[in-house]
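Notebook entry, structure prediction.
Reason for the run: the old model in the group folder had no record of what sequence produced it. Starting over properly, with the input documented here first.
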Amino acid sequence: MSAEAANLPLRVDAITGSRADYSLMAPIARALARRAGLRVRLVFTGAHHSDNEKGGLPALMAKCGVAAAEVPAEGIGRADEANALALAAMTGGFGRIWARERPDACVLLGDRYELLPPAAIAVLYGIAIAHVFGGEEDVSYCFDTQVRNAITKMAHLHLVMHSAMRRRLLDMGEESWRIAVIGNPALENRPRDGGAAFRAAAAERGWGPPPYIAACYLPPTAVPGCWKGELEALLAALDAHAGHTIVWAGVNADPESPAIEARLRAHAAARGNHVFVANLGATLFASLLEAADAIVGNSSSGLLEAASHGLPSVTVGIRQTGRLTNPHALVVPADPVAIRDALATAIGDAEFRRRVAEGGNPYLREGAAEAAADFIAAGLRANAAALKLKRALPDNPTEWMGLKRVPEYPPLAECRAVAGP
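New structure, fully documented this time:
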């Protein structure tokens, strides 16, 4: 980077595609905005515009703490064709806003299909990509895994939760200097109110009395229709807990989610102890994890967040296959007996609950958002040519597996990055 270019502010757009990833992306965006020489904007798109989330979007944008913009995705989460049209609208939207004001880098998080439009336009426009949370799954029962791995190969910088994910990215051919282990920014300063906020909201809104079980079910998107058998098994297992209020924490914008929501609403209407809440929001959801006796279903919250609340988790079925989590997380097939047995352990085994409460969260690292911002800022300020020139083979060989390889000119050493991990 030239001295003249180094004096110009670098533009960074952090992309948030849903309320679920906002709590992880917003701390990174705010930390980036505190770095001198960076102009940061949080771009709201994807499921923020779904029927379940769009009502709360203006307030979220107003309080995000940095400059905000949006790329609409009208109709997302309704059905396959509506999702396809929403992705097309997002592609055009990112094409337009980045043609007017092109950032030097964008920050993408996770594995949602809503990441595909900004990732594609970033590649087309030569915008550097920093990807948060690569390397988390190794089996694609959800197309999320394919999206996550595709973004990994598009990305220039990687921010992962644990050294195990770093190992996975190295195995995918990513260069070590591009990867930083930061932990999970959403786990820092997480509300620990003992469930007071949720219990107050439940009393005010008629969601039911304690004790609570938090529940969430999302479709395994690579296996259409699989949700029907899995969800029925989960509902059957929960019939053994008539003394608990079962709080269903909404659905997401995946294909088949509308059908799942309809089934859960019908079940809640027929069972006095089930309640479906379309959008709890980050604060009340964290408080629910404080108030509940366990979380059950197939949301990543049970694998990534529950441990920070000392909360036993039961993960059901195939959606999270290949995910890495803490050793106390219970994982069972979508079988009513297996689910009931796991819940009996999670709720009734005092020794198990003690181990969970004392076990901690392997993804909690102090200063995660600050570490992410430091790594992204350093990467952007180093050798821009090296940052965008991705390689999968070290040492610039002239031969590979018996085949002649076209070598790189100029030599590899002249285009190495300045900054390392």
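Summary: The two ends are 19 Å apart (CA to CA).
The old model has been moved to the deprecated folder.
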